[in-house]
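Ticket #404: bound-state structure for pyridoxal-5'-phosphate.
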Amino acid sequence: MDTQTANLSAQLIELADTYGAHNYHPLPIVITTAKGIWVKDPDGRKYMDMLSAYSALNHGHRHPRVIKALVDQAKKLTLTSRAFNNDQLGPWLKELCDFTGYDVALPMNTGCEAVETALKLARKWGYKVKHVPEGKAEIVVCANNFHGRTVTVVGFSTEAQYKDGFGPFSPGFKVVKFGDIEELRAAVNENTVAFLFEPIQGEAGINVPPAGYLKAAKEICKQHNALFVADEVQTGFGRTGKNFCWQHDDARPDMMIMGKALGGGVMPISAVVASREIMHVLNPGDHGSTFGGNPLACAVSREALRVLKDEQLVEKSAEMGEYFMQGLRAIKSPYIKEVRGKGLLIGLELKPEAGGARRFCEAMMNMGLLCKETHDNVIRFAPPLIITKKEIDWALKRIAKALK
Ligand code: PLP
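RESOLUTION: The complex was predicted; output attached.
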């Protein structure tokens, strides 16, 4: 790297550090351009993106069709608020319902907002339809969950740091061990309005529940007339080799929460889908968002959904995921404890004596491969779904070298 551009990277990092809140600890790289699975720094050095913005870039960076949809729509109409109708919202809602197989959808912007939406819907449904006594609604969640960062949502996190200094928190949440069906059975009662879960826990370290867990959990919810609510923000849109991760267990949720890749890696857009019976507990004025359902994000998302289908990205994720996982399992390293995941959502857990995942991520970065540790000992590999075998081989060589 020449000194001038090395200085430029350092200067940009320092600017962000000086004028920004210190709520992140990014790898020391600045990205200035990107295309497909590759990104470049100010020096023109190329890196393979193996994080995909935490699964928001399933289509890769700047997919040409998604960018075209963005530019075309930007020339026509970008924002109306929901005080008026816009011509992209209706078609997007229909196309999302067709894609997911649900009756109705509600748009928001970020994953966490969609989670909040689902929590409000579950409670309102609980009071108005299930007739839970006022103020008694309970929502069961899993230990080690990650559903976002609002006060309500961190309130039911089990991660001390996510909560420290942010209380008091909303009551009405019960925590059970993820993957333990008997704990769930014991926790659900007549006041339970929902069980909220991630079909694979992403931020917790790519935790895959035992086969059959989701199906059994759904059955418990059904017995107690509680909503079975999947957070597919990270696992959705092909990331795990199916359109949605619950499909691996054939456990269709009553409500599904989506975000990230719904915006094709270009616009923030999130949604909750459900049946009419559940969604229509909301009346005008009950819930909303200025930018939710804006025509720019809807137009981008419509094209993103079409690209997923046309380019068979979901099938590719299943095939490439299998190939990648096999390659990772074949690496001989004294540090590897386990490789797990589904599709292209893969976690490589290191043994405690490896000294943490961060140093390996930094070593890989220096070899042109960008990935990020999740918690201390897991490296997450989640490349865009457009990745090829040749590119996976390229990555495997570097991963093996870093883990030697
Ligand atoms: N739910 C899950 C499962 C997530 O992984 C995330 C983010 O990583 C969120 C919700 C929050 O999404 P956002 O950061 O867009 O608010």
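RESOLUTION NOTES: The CA atoms of residues 334 and 404 lie 8 Å apart.
TICKET STATUS: resolved
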